[in-house]
Specification:
single chain, mainly beta, Jelly Rolls, eight-stranded antiparallel β-sheet, 14 strands
Amino acid sequence: MHETSTVCSGDCGDLALATNDIKDRGAQGTMFDVVALRDVSITSFDLYCNRAVTEQLQIYTRQGSYKGHELSQDGWTLVYDKMVSLGGRDNLVELDALDSVVEIAEGTRQAFYIFTNGVVLYTGGTREGNLYAADDALGFYEGVGIDAGTFSGNTGNLWAPRVFSGNIR
């Protein structure tokens, strides 16, 4: 039987991959890739933001890598779009469930873009595209930070390498 987010054995309940808890940098957005090491369903994220305010937060996804798609909304799907009470620099915010669960087949690369004016926190990485964290279900790769709005079209607004600070659920 093929497992999904609704039909799942006990080994794939409410699991989370912790990416990073260092929060020394930030921007309005961050993009990164994950690779499914088995069939997985991404249902939510936890994250750190720079300010304790209520802001619109959006999460986009696309099959394949974000690389080469940082500046254009073409091919991206909005899977989360809500007002969120951000906790500030030291408070991990547990987001509600995504508006659409993201199903990723084993061996498949999937990109995510998290955006808010409340500033998503991350840290510097070692090399864009490097594997940073993994468990038995998911590999998480170093990505980029993005300033100046969603899909600005300006390469001067990209910062790399960057490592998203939070959890992937």
